[in-house]
Amino acid sequence: xxxxxxxxxxxxxxxxxxxxxxxxxxxxxxxxxxxxxxxxxxxxxxxxxxxxxxxxxxxxxxxxxxxxxxxxxxxxxxxxxxxxxxxxxxxxxxxxxxxxxxxxxxxxxxxxxxxxxxxxxxxxxxxxxxxxxxxxxxxxxxxxxxxxxxxxxxxxxxx
Length: 159
Prior knowledge:
Radius of gyration: 14 Å
Number of helices: 1
CATH class: Alpha Beta
Strand content: over 45%
Number of strands: 12
């Protein structure tokens, strides 16, 4: 298993550093104006973009070429299924109000992504060794986007 850390810049950050064993891997940028994410890794530019209404589907691109798709189970559930190559990996929240997600493949838990503090600026993720780094960062980024959607919805509902 590989453990990556995420460090947000500020409260409910819009930019996150992904760190592996104390070494910066990349920075994930999430614009406040829309539900999307961008990062550079090994000379390639990656994008996670919503497709359709209410960001129920996402397309993941490497240098403008689609390499994976992700789909929310429903608008009101935070479960996401990522299809990359022959693999299907689900991000499943541990509970209705949980900030932790299990990574599930073939009904087996293969990893976990979670926030480690109340201010949502420290994160931890464990992944299987055989998962490519750009897929690990993309899964991390999808969870950041889910957390952002929840935060935006909460603020909107409270006003």
